[in-house]
Design brief:
Blueprint (H helix, E strand, L loop, with lengths): L1 H96 L6 H28 L4 H34 L1 H17 L4 H12 L1
Amino acid sequence: FRERMKVITCQWRDLHAKEAQLKTHMEESGKTLKENDKMRMQALKKAIRERENKMQKESELLRAKGKLEALRNKHQKLCNRVQKYSIFNKYLEDVVKISQFEEIREVISRYKTLVRMHKDLLQSQQRHKEMSEQAKVLLDQYMEEKEAEILQYKNELVQLQLRFDQAQSDILSWETRWADIQNTTAKKTQELGTIKLAILNLFQ
């Protein structure tokens, strides 16, 4: 019985030792698990941040691509517009060739001067109308003449616009009409300024 109790006592002592070791191991394992969980959470947060950064960069990249595509479209439209309106530059060059002007900017400057003169003339007419009742009849007659001229200018402008539109689809017809305009201009020297003004209005 003593021998048996001694054996049991040794077994209990070993069991307590193993239990202490197991407890120590469990504490160490707990600490390791906590550290692993902490590292895992940090890694998860880092992964989430990286994913958010990636999504943000992808979104910015998509926006940048959209802006780039919009700029390309705008550039293409501007190129098309420049090509479309290049005919007007050629038209003005032809006007310069048959006129006393040497450069296109002189034609434009002349147009602006005529517009300014026309505006000043209308203002002067209004002032004269307000200044004198005696000159009212003459002024009304003058205004009627100017309105008739303006109407004539508008009619000529409409005709020129129609000719210009026709020229885009029919170059030969346009050249024929332009030759007619040149012949008319040579015959009617006094109307040269009027025709130039109409052409410049068309260009504007």
